[in-house]
Amino acid sequence: MKKQFLIIITLLISTFTFACSCEIPKPILEFKSADYVFKGKVVSKVYAIDSLNYTVTFEVFEHYKKGKKPKRLEFTFSSEGEYTGEFTSCDWHVNKNEKWLVYAYYSNKKLTFSYYCSNSKRIDNWNISKNEQRILDYGNSFKLENYIYQFESGFNITKPIANIDSIFKNGKIKNYTNPYTWLELFIDKKGNLNFVTAGLNYEFKADSIYNLKTEFKIKLKKQVTEFEKDAMELIRKMPKWEIKRHIKSNIPVSQICHLIIQFDKEKKEWSYEL
Question: How many H-runs (helices) and E-runs (strands) does the chain carry?
Fold first, then answer.
């Protein structure tokens, strides 16, 4: 009985811990996508007649994003579980007198913001980290097209224009010693494959303010195997790729694409994973 109890507690803790786990976007990318970025205090919280949702009003003390600068902004959210009868580990709420840094955006023509999966947060005594404050201060000067993107959210997922399956079907059949690798591809903002390299044979330069990649360079750190050479030869047969774009602004950007490639010796087949 004691063992079963411990298992149940463990499962509940795991559910609470991981249910809302998600990628928080880099602050500058959320800044770019947001309609308002501001620092404010909640001056009112009013529940609907049925208590199923509530509306909070922020008095805005500082707007960071260029554009309209209303002195007050309102947001409506679902009420706490004690009112709705629904309790989840992802519940979060806004209360009167709290101070917040908010990255707000329009969804279905309504202004809203998130807590999980967002850089919006409660702030004590108006304190914001030095790094994020620099991003907020320079956010309006940021140009998406000046950087290289890899795993960041907010962009479309691209693939080669050529039929990658048919290209891999014609891969060389050899008795490779280690038929597995991952490749890094640099694709420019016009969709052209510029470079392809294996493993860790590359390096980046990053911007000190936004923490985004500014330069991709091939730098040989280990010997390239025969399998990796043949894998890169296959990739070079796909010189044109779909253009990677920022979903909200549609701005084209350069990207690093990561491919895992392997060869099944028994089936004599090449395979890949984008």
Answer: 6, 14
Residues 85, 92: contact at Cβ < 8 Å? no
CA angle 115, 71, 78 (to 5 degrees): 35
**CB-CB contact of 60 with 72 (8 Å):** yes
Spatial distance between the Cα atoms of 66 and 131, rounded to a whole number of angstroms? 20
Per-residue pLDDT tens digits for 108-155: 999 999 999 999 999 988 899 999 999 999 999 999 999 999 999 999
DSSP codes, 154-171: SB----BSS-HHHHHHT-
Nearest one of 210, 199, 262 to 234, comparing CA atoms: 262
CB 195 within 8 A of CB 220: no
DSSP per residue, 194-229: EEEEETT-EEEEE-TTT--EEEEEE---SPPPHHHH
The pTM score is 0.85
What three-state secondary structure class fits 50?
A: coil
Where does residue 63 fall: left (phi above 0), alpha (psi -120 to 50 degrees), or beta otherwise?
beta
Cβ-based burial of 32 (10 A; exposed 0-12, middle 13-18, buried ≥19): buried
User: Average of pLDDT values for 186-200?
Assistant: 94
Alpha carbon distance 167, 165 (integer Å):
5
User: Which amino acid is it at 109?
Assistant: K
Alpha-carbon distance 206 to 210, whole Å? Answer: 8
Residue 191's pLDDT band (boundaries 50, 70, 90)?
very high
Q: Read off the pLDDT of residues 235-257 as tens digits, 9 standing for 90 and up.
A: 999 999 999 999 999 999 999 99
Cβ neighbours, 10 Å, residue 122: 13
